[in-house]
Design goal:
Layout: H1 2-59, H2 90-98, H3 107-114, E1 164-169, E2 172-178, H4 186-195, E3 200-202, E4 208-209, E5 212-213, E6 226-227, E7 233-242, E8 246-255, E9 261-269
């Protein structure tokens, strides 16, 4: 009886070992098959996507370059890009632009790819020796054809420059996008406000963020305080209304020579 028990236990051990080894072999074989299948699927999907993109573009009357693997073509006159979208039509426009066609490609995705083919315009004025240090960042310059020119002060190089651009829209150049002033460009900033009769300033940064200076403080801090950037304008804080996360400050800008005065509202984070 004892001999039989030992033999039965040994047989069971051998059987368990055999099943374990077979399980490992089958698992590894299945894993390799799965990885191979995924690799083939990914390669097939990539090729299918490229083929569908080419087909979609050809259907739209665009061309691809046979000399290269793939080139995103330019828009043609047959498919104009809409630049004026009525507010009432905007929801339907978004649905139409983001809907995928039978080739799993949306109009919005194709238009987005076109951005890379837009040529870079000239920004030579911003890089002139007298202007280069008037830019807060060395990789963000206003284009020559859309920059905001200031009235030149005789004998002062760079007096007509500020890093600011007109924002062309439905109402023409009604808005201006500008870099936050440096200490040495506060005068330029207020001259721009005066010359272009700017009524409201929306400041999208704090003066200091994460211990880094993002903007010089170009307005008076205390009520009724006056600063004189340059020698032509004075700026006085008329009122300041605090809210939970921002301030609304009323500033009076006065021309020192002729005495004319204008009001400007500053919206800034608290």
């Amino acid at each position: 009886m004892k001999q039989i028990l030992i033999s039965t236990g040994t047989a069971a051990l051998v059987l368990v070992t055999f099943v374990f080894i077979c399980s490992i072999i089958l698992f590894k074989r299945k894993d390799k098959t799965k990885m191979k299948s995924q690799s083939k699927y990914q390669e097939s999907s990539s090729k299918r996507l490229e083929r569908l993109e080419r087909h979609e573009l050809r259907e739209r009357g665009w061309r691809d370059d046979d000399d290269s693997d793939y080139t995103w073509p330019l828009f043609t006159d047959e498919i104009p890009v809409r630049s004026d979208i009525p507010v009432s039509e905007f929801p339907d426009y978004v649905i139409d632009m983001t809907a995928e066609n039978q080739h799993n490609t949306s109009k919005l995705a194709i238009e987005y790819q076109q951005l890379s083919s837009v040529p870079t315009l000239s920004y030579e004025v911003a890089c002139l020796p007298q202007n280069i240090n008037l830019n807060r960042f060395r990789n963000i310059y206003p284009y020559d054809d859309s920059r905001v020119p200031l009235k030149e002060i005789p004998g002062e190089l760079g007096s007509d420059y500020i890093n600011a651009s007109f924002v062309s829209g439905y109402c023409g150049n009604r808005y201006i996008a500008a870099q936050a002033p440096l200490n040495e460009t506060i005068d330029h900033f207020w001259r721009m406000v005066w010359e272009y009769e700017i009524e409201a300033i929306v400041m999208l940064t704090k003066c200091v963020e994460m211990t880094r200076e993002k903007s010089a403080q170009y307005w008076p801090e205390s009520l009724c305080e006056t600063i004189t950037p340059g020698d032509r304008l004075s700026v006085t804080l008329s009122s300041s209304t605090p809210y939970a996360e921002y301030y609304v400050r009323k500033l009076l800008v006065k021309h020192v020579c002729d005495g004319f005065c204008a009001c400007c509202i500053l919206f800034a984070f608290a």
